[in-house]
Amino acid sequence: MIFGGSLLLLAIRRLKQFKLKERFTLLFMLLGLPFMVLAVWPNGVEYLARISGIEQKTVMLLCVSIFLILIIFELLTIVSVMEQKITTLAQMVGILMEHQRLVDRHLDGASPKRVETRKPEHPNSATPRWRSGDSAGSSSSDQAH
Amino acid sequence: MHKRSWFHPELKGLVLIPAFNERQSVGKLVHRLRRALPATFDILVIDDGSTDDTLRQVPPGTAVVSLPFNLGIGGAMQTGYRYASLHGYDVAVQVDGDGQHRPGEVWRLVKRLMESDSDLVVGSRFLESGRYRQSFTRWVGISMLGSLIQLLSGLRITDCTSGFRVANRRVIRAFAHWYPEDYPEPEVILLLHRAGFKVTEQPVRMRQRRAGMTSIPLTRGLFYVLKVITALLLDMAREPWPRGKVREHDPEPDLGDLRWEPAPAGDPAPEAVQA
């Protein structure tokens, strides 16, 4: 009873916090509801086993575990697709940053004022600015240590 | 100097150097490649989320794609092929960041690609015997994988794990579309062959490794071979390329959502200059 109820509550809470998508909440509700029903009616397992012709109650357990394994399989599929998408995103971010650096350099070259203000001793013009800024930041923090 | 009968002066080539913590070798490698290659060949270093200062060792003026986190060799290589595809390069050369591959040999590979009707030319250490010293276990592993590829596809490749290879435009587009992730070298040969691309080998000389760490330590060699064997067998179960499959007479594979053309490098749109 407590387990089923808390499962339902947890799902709705996550949904409220925008941590869980609606369709996953639905899945959890479907998972939680049978527990609630069984809590109210404990002999339900036996009844279900009898009407479905299952003689050993452990076989019922097997059915439940098959169901859970299917859910895990589904989740791993989702994770794989996500991973593929994240990889593509990272690659495009890298390529776009390199492109942006080229455009920046061209723009800097186009305006003479900026050329003057820009440090000529920039050690590696191939380094993206955010990266050189990063390393400058980390080296100064190193000095602080 | 480089103008030979097979060489087209407008041939745009891109040398891809995946680098993960290769601070000791990457700078030297870029310098040597610059000397060995004509001006129409660009060099792209793909920094695969290095934790050392690999990025700072890259000589100025070299294109660097810096990945926000480590994607592994497959992800890094695909980044290079995506870049090559988006910028319309004719030829992509894959060179390891550890300095194992000789810049002087790049030409022999490109020449072979242009002269033959191959789509991918793999530089092989083993075609010329006795040049490259190799530990016995590694040789066994590589020849096992080679035999498996031959068994599965009928294609004989002596050095299927070699990362020294040259690809033409068709292969660049196919790789930009999809590329295996973990240990891509042997898988790619099988997949390309099954998709109707022509893969050939060219004997090259390679250096023994000096600095950095090999991506496949010897202790994990067995694990590597087993994993690649599994991957190769699994690859047989699926189509060589997902969606928009690349067929033999299909000059332009379906790139799906990748149809994005950047402005030519160093030549931004005029309104951007005014702004």
Summarize the entry for a quick read:
The complex is a heterodimer of chains A (145) and B (275). Chain A is mainly alpha-helical.
Say which CATH homologous superfamily of chain B is assigned. Answer: Spore Coat Polysaccharide Biosynthesis Protein SpsA, Chain A
Read across the widest sheet of chain B, the strand sequence of neighbours is 3-2-1-4-6-5-7
Radius of gyration of chain B: 18 Å
Q: What is the number of independent domains of chain B?
A: 1
CATH architecture of chain B: Alpha-Beta Complex
CATH C-level class of chain B: Alpha Beta
The ordered H/E elements of chain A are: HHHHHH
Which residue ranges of chain A are poorly predicted, with pLDDT under 50 across at least 5 consecutive positions?
Answer: 112-145
* Major beta sheet summary of chain B: 7 strands, mixed
Report the count of strand segments of chain B.
7
List keywords for this structure.
heterodimer; A: mainly alpha; 6 helices; about 80% helix; disordered C terminus; B: about 280 residues; alpha/beta; Spore Coat Polysaccharide Biosynthesis Protein SpsA, Chain A; 7 strands; about 15% strand; globular
Commentary on this structure:
The complex is a heterodimer of chains A (145) and B (275). By secondary structure, chain A is mainly α. In chain A, helix 1 runs antiparallel to helix 2. Chain A contains six helices and no strands. With 275 residues, chain B is α/β, with parallel strands linked by helices. Chain B has a single domain (13-242), classed as Alpha-Beta Complex (Spore Coat Polysaccharide Biosynthesis Protein SpsA, Chain A). In chain B, 37% of the residues lie in helices and 13% in strands. Chain B has nine helices and seven strands. Chain B has helices spanning 26-36, 54-57, 72-86, 103-115, 136-153, 169-177, 184-194, 221-237, 270-274; strands at residues 13-19, 41-47, 63-66, 91-94, 120-124, 165-168, 199-203. A seven-stranded mixed sheet of chain B has the order 3-2-1-4-6-5-7, sandwiched between helices. In chain B, helix 3 (72-86) packs across helix 6 (169-177) and helix 5 (136-153) packs parallel to helix 8 (221-237). The termini of chain B are far apart. The relative contact order of chain B is 0.15. Residues 245-275 of chain B have low confidence and may be disordered. Classes of the chains: A mainly alpha (145), B alpha/beta (275). Chain A binds chain B through residues 87, 90-95, 97-99, 102-103, 105-107, 110, 123-128, 131, 135, and chain B through 45-46, 53, 55-56, 58-69, 71, 75, 78-79, 82-83, 86, 181, 262-263, 265-268, 272-273.
